[in-house]
Amino acid sequence: MKTIKDYIRTIPDFPQKGVMFRDITTIIQDADGLALAVDTMLDMVKDLDYDVIAGAESRGFIFGAPMAYKQHKPFVLIRKKGKLPSETVSVSYDLEYGSTEIEMHTDSFKPGSRVLLVDDLIATGGTTEAMIKLVEKLGGEVAGVCVLIELPDLKGREKIEGYRLFSAVSYEGE
User: Fold this and answer.
1) Which residues, in sequence order, are bridge partners of residue 78?
2) CA–CA dist 83, 1 (Å, integer)
3) 59, 129, 150, 157: which one is catalytic?
4) Least buried of 3, 41, 83, 98, by fewest C-beta within 10 Å?
C-alpha cells in the first residue's frame, strides 16, 4: 500500500536554487492519493472538538473542503485580499520577499466557534500564524491546525507555539 510520501513529487531547485519543492499535484490528480490524504488528515483530528473547518487559498481548499464534507461541518474560505465579495476582516503578514494580506468574511462563523485550520503545508508558519489571527479577530477559538506536510527545518511549529499542530508527513532534514 502506498503512503502519502509515495504520492508527493519532489522537485529540486524550485522555485529557486536550493529549495526542494514538495509538489502535492501528484496526490490530488490520483483518486487514491487524494482519498488517502483526506482520510489521514481526518484521522489525525478524529478526537478534536471543532465546529467549523477553515482553509487557506488555494491548497487549503483542496483538503479542507472534502474534510468538512465528510464531517458534515461548514467550510470557511480564507482568501487573498480583495477576493471575497462581502464584509471582511483582514490580517497582513510577511513573506520571504515582501508582505501580503489574507481575509475572511466577518460572518464566517459565530463568535466562540471552535475552528480547525487546514492547509497543505507548514513551512515558516507565516500563513498559519495569520490564519490564527483572523480566527481570533472574529472571536473564534483555534481548535487545531491540520496540514498534510510539515517542513520542521523551517521552524513553522515554533511560530504557532501554544496551538495544536497535526501533520501527516514531515520532511525533517530532507
Assistant:
1) 56
2) 40
3) 59
4) 98
Q: Is 22 a catalytic residue?
A: no
Residue 25 located in a structural domain:
no
- CA-CA distance, 9 to 26, in Å (whole number)? 6
For residue 151, the enclosing domain spans: 47-170
- Report the domain count for the chain: 1
Catalytic-labelled residue, pool 87, 96, 161, 172: 96
Tens digit of pLDDT for each residue in 42-67? 999 999 999 999 999 999 999 999 99
In a domain, 52, yes or no: yes
Residue 150 sits in a domain whose CATH number is 3.40.50.2020
DSSP string across 82-116: T--SS-EEEEEEEETTEEEEEEEETTSS-TT-EEE
Residue/partner pairs of 67-74 with CB below 8 Å, 24 or more apart: 67/38, 67/41, 67/42, 67/116, 67/118, 67/146, 70/38, 70/42, 71/42, 74/109
- To the question of pTM greater than 0.85 for the whole model, the response is yes
Reply yes or no on whether 141 is catalytic: no
Query: Is residue 159 assigned to a domain?
Result: yes
pLDDT at 68 over 90: yes
Instruction: Report the C-alpha gap between 65 and 102 in whole angstroms.
Output: 18
